[in-house]
């Protein structure tokens, strides 16, 4: 099963089931993650900066393409509510703008 490591959350490791979004995987393991629109792909607050393993993600969704075209989602960023890990592990970090105040980031 693919694994997501969140570098600035104490190297948090999250197993991502086939077809499961990163956001659902994070929540399934009891982790808080910003998602202002409720995980519907209508904002970019759930984004993650991908440091390694971008090639292991599923294809961009329509929402992600829309935000890329508007310049609100960089080439190395994905929306956790939209993206899946298809075949391998990835490492990412929470952007400064979407950190939750009650969590400790490194």
Structure in words:
With 106 residues, the chain is an alpha+beta fold. The chain has a single domain, classed as Beta-grasp domain (Ubiquitin-like (UB roll)). Helices cover 14% and strands 20% of the residues. The chain has helices at residues 22-28, 62-69, and strands spanning 3-6, 12-15, 47-52, 77-79, 90-93. The longest helix has 8 residues, at 62-69. The protein is globular, with a radius of gyration of 12 Å. The termini are far apart. Its cofactor is [2Fe-2S] cluster. It comes from Pontibacter toksunensis. This is 2Fe-2S iron-sulfur cluster-binding protein. InterPro entries: 2Fe-2S_ferredoxin-like_sf, 2Fe-2S_ferredoxin-type, Adrenodoxin-like, Beta-grasp_dom_sf.
How confident is the prediction overall: mean pLDDT? 96
What is the domain total for the residues?
1
Q: Indicate the low-confidence ranges by residue numbers.
A: none
How much helicity do the residues have? Answer: 10-25%
Strand residue percentage: 15-25%
CATH architectural category: Roll
Major sheet summary line? 5 strands, mixed
For the largest beta sheet, what order do the strands appear in spatially? 2-1-5-3-4
Order of helices and strands: EEHEHEE
Helix/strand-derived category reads: alpha+beta
**Can you tell me the overall shape?**
globular
Question: Any idea what the radius of gyration is?
Answer: 12 Å
Number of helices, where a helix is a run of at least 4 consecutive DSSP H or I residues: 2
Gap between N and C termini: 26 Å
Number of strands: 5
> What top-tier CATH class fits best?
Alpha Beta
Query: What is the CATH H-level superfamily?
Result: Beta-grasp domain
CATH topology: Ubiquitin-like (UB roll)
InterPro entries: 2Fe-2S_ferredoxin-like_sf, 2Fe-2S_ferredoxin-type, Adrenodoxin-like, Beta-grasp_dom_sf
Cofactor: [2Fe-2S] cluster
Pfam family, one: Fer2
Domain 2Fe-2S ferredoxin-type: 2-98
């Amino acid at each position: 099963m693919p694994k997501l490591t969140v570098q600035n959350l104490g190297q948090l490791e999250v197993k991502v089931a086939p077809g499961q979004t990163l956001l659902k995987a994070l929540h399934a393991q009891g982790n808080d993650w910003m998602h202002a629109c409720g995980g519907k792909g209508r904002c970019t607050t759930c984004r993650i900066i991908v440091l390694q393993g971008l090639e292991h993600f599923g294809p961009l969704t329509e929402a992600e393409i829309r935000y890329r075209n508007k310049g609100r989602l960089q080439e190395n960023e994905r929306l956790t509510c939209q993206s899946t890990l298809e075949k391998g592990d990835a490492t990412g970090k929470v952007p400064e703008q979407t950190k939750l105040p009650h969590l400790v980031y490194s």
